[in-house]
Write a structure and sequence with these properties.
The complex is a heterodimer of chains A (227) and B (174). Chain A has seven helices and nine strands. Chain A is of the alpha/beta class. The longest helix of chain A is centred in the N-terminal third of the chain and has 22 residues, at 2-23. In chain A, 36% of the residues are buried. Chain B is globular, with a radius of gyration of 18 Å. Classes of the chains: A alpha/beta (227), B alpha/beta (174).
């Protein structure tokens, strides 16, 4: 009896997720095209995706743009820390989370991962991303600007690339809701020494930000992150 | 009719029945390819293999394999019960079970719903279903890389020799 309940619930959830996938809203994006343009100068850019793996995104970036894509889904790590009651260990975990070499990544898709972590975790994560980014590399991040609504169902968003100007937002269950939105100044400070090259505040209460790491100085050593 | 079905069924365990016959029958009926040897070999879920697995026909794995799997000209299917800890080289790889290790396919890698891959994928075409788990990198190789791979169907050593012949400075540095 219980087993059949479980199966019927799973079937229902699956059916809901299928409907959700096809009905999920498509939102315009301003920075994705600039992000892609920032990668196009490289022969086979290496892309780091911090969201869940999305088949169409892999095809889009891999087949159409010739990127090598590295998927490091942080939502699973955040969920695990929440469920195990180990959120205080998340900053230290994030410091060691990425095995990639320094200055080895051409582009980073953060999506909205920073909305789900506190400042104390955001700092080490940003440091690691800055470390991995190559000089002249680009980083795309979204930041919510609306205060989280108490009682709302915690959800992540799977960002599916429809084309260079549109993203489909597919929600899926999260272990914790979005945290308090970061003010613009904090975002800037968090990613220093990266430079904000594009920033858009959308009607959907989403701030889209494109960062760029300073290029190498000709004849000089690579730009080192601030100590 | 009924007797014939009963005669076939007891050989397979109860749980994976819907899966295994589907795969086998689909392969057996696909007459598009002329070869008579186009059978699909199935490694059952109680089978554990450690070492190097080479083959020249399509293979479905429902058991456990550790080591290296090479089916350069054929399709490898990791069934829902399959657990692989191996470097995989095949023409096409379909993952419904779990793979830990790098996967290289000359045509396509397809990670289906509930399929899981922890490792790097190198293939010109990659399909990942929404319910799939993947951690690693995806490298959709340029077409220029494929002929070299096909030539080196026999062994990875031959492949290394080719690479060193075409890029000696790199090999020397390595």
């Amino acid at each position: 009896m219980a087993l059949s309940d479980l199966f019927s619930r799973r079937r229902k959830e699956h059916a809901e997720s299928e409907v959700g996938a096809s009905d999920a809203p498509v939102h315009p994006t301003k920075v994705l095209a600039r992000f892609i343009a920032g990668l196009s100068s490289r022969s086979q850019p290496v892309l780091l995706d911090l969201g869940p793996v999305v088949g169409t995104n892999v095809s889009f970036f891999g087949e159409q743009l010739g990127c090598k894509i590295i998927v490091e889904d942080l939502s699973k790590d955040i969920d695990r820390h929440v469920r195990d009651g180990l959120l205080d260990q998340l900053p230290a975990f994030l410091m060691k989370r990425f095995p990639q070499e320094s200055a080895s990544i051409d582009g980073i898709l953060c999506w909205d991962v920073f909305d789900y972590i506190e400042k104390k975790s955001a700092k080490p994560l940003a440091e690691q991303l800055i470390r991995m980014l190559r000089p002249d590399g680009v980083l795309l991040a979204f930041f919510g600007t609306a205060q989280p609504q108490p009682g709302s169902r915690p959800e992540y968003t799977r960002h599916v690339v429809v084309d260079k100007a549109n993203l489909q937002h597919r929600p899926y269950t999260a272990a914790r809701p979005k945290q308090r939105p970061l003010p613009n100044r904090d975002i800037q400070l968090l990613f220093e020494p990266l430079r904000i090259v594009e920033q858009f505040l959308l009607k959907t209460n989403l701030r889209e930000v494109l960062f760029r790491k300073a290029p190498e100085t000709p004849g000089g050593p690579p730009v080192a992150p601030s100590a | 009719m009924w007797k014939r079905d009963e005669a076939v069924r007891p050989a397979t365990p109860a749980a994976p029945q819907p899966q295994a016959p589907q795969i086998v029958s689909a392969g057996a009926r696909s007459d598009a390819r002329p070869s008579m040897e186009k059978d699909i070999v199935n490694i059952g879920k109680s089978v554990v293999i450690k070492g190097e697995l080479n083959g020249s026909e399509d293979l479905t794995i429902e058991g456990h394999v550790e080591g290296t799997i090479q089916l350069r000209e054929h399709v490898l299917t990791i069934g829902p019960n399959g657990k692989i800890k191996a470097e995989v080289f095949a023409k096409a790889v379909v993952v419904l079970g779990e793979v830990t290790g790098n996967v290289t396919a000359s045509e396509k890698v397809d990670i289906r719903d509930n399929g899981s891959v922890d490792g790097d994928i190198a293939s010109p075409r990659v399909a990942i279903a929404e319910g799939a788990h993947f951690r690693g990198s995806v490298d959709m190789q340029r077409k220029g890389a494929q002929p070299g791979q096909q030539k080196a169907a026999s062994s990875s050593q031959a492949e290394k020799a080719q690479a060193s012949a075409s890029a000696q400075p790199q090999a020397a540095a390595h």
